């Protein structure tokens, strides 16, 4: 800024305004980016928990691993632990979205919160205590609880295809256009 411009009150106010906005903008970026980073870590943790759970479950069902109620309880507790801070995180997320528009990962985080809640709400033991006691020599459970959203893989695609039923043939709609309305 020149000496003459330095004495101009408008120039001084404009410079002060610009600096204040830049400082505030940098603070916003740091706060928003820090929140987005923590959100990304939370999403990554969910993916690890979810993936490890389904791998364990598939190995037990196939007889590759032995079922223990302690292992199952450990997975359930991991989902519960991940879900515990979600209410507070969602409140902060809504506040940031109101202030700044959008937050990276927000939609995915909400979906994972719903998915974790659904898994826990419909949780059934993989093997009931009576089944575990009555079948000690069998390699794998007789009954598998069907809960949660199981990821589609090449290994389970045939199973999913087997239980899916084709949709009935759809009938195309042919709207009748009244030409008189256009002329």
Quickly list its features.
single chain; 183 residues; mainly alpha; 7 helices; 0% strand
How many angstroms does the end-to-end distance come to? Answer: 67 Å
- The helix-and-strand class reads mainly alpha
Shape: flat
Secondary structure: helix percent? 55-70%
**In terms of per-residue confidence, which ranges show pLDDT below 50 for 5 or more consecutive residues?**
145-149
Overall number of strands: 0
Instruction: Please trace the helix and strand order, writing H or E for each element.
Output: HHHHHHH
Strand content: under 5%
Cα Rg: 28 Å
Query: What average pLDDT do the residues reach?
Result: 76
Q: Tell me the number of helical segments per DSSP (H or I, 4 or more residues long).
A: 7
Largest sheet: none
Describe, in plain words, how this protein is organized in 3D.
The protein is mostly helical. The chain has a domain at 36-127. The protein is built from 7 helices and no strands. It has helices at residues 3-6, 9-62, 69-83, 86-100, 106-121, 129-134, 154-163. Helix 2 runs antiparallel to helix 3 and helix 3 (69-83) packs antiparallel against helix 5 (106-121).
Protein topology:
Blueprint: H1 3-6, H2 9-62, H3 69-83, H4 86-100, H5 106-121, H6 129-134, H7 154-163
Helix pairs in contact: 2-3, 2-5, 3-5
Short description:
The protein is mostly helical and 183 residues long.
């Amino acid at each position: 800024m020149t000496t003459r411009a330095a004495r101009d009150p408008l120039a001084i106010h404009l410079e002060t305004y610009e600096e204040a906005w830049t400082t505030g903008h940098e603070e916003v970026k740091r706060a928003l980016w820090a929140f987005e980073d923590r959100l990304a870590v939370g999403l990554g943790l969910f993916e690890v928990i979810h993936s490890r759970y389904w791998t364990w479950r598939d190995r037990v069902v196939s007889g590759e691993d032995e079922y223990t109620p302690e292992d199952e309880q450990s997975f359930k507790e991991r989902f519960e632990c991940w879900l515990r801070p979600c209410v507070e995180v969602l409140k902060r997320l809504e506040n940031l979205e109101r202030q700044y528009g959008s937050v990276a990962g927000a939609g995915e985080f909400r979906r994972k919160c719903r998915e974790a809640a659904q898994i826990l709400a419909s949780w059934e033991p993989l093997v009931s205590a009576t089944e575990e006691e009555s079948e000690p020599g069998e390699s794998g459970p007789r009954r598998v609880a069907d809960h949660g959203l199981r990821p589609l893989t090449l290994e389970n695609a045939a199973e999913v295809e087997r239980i899916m039923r084709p949709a009935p043939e759809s009938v195309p709609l042919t709207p009748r256009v009244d030409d008189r309305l256009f002329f």
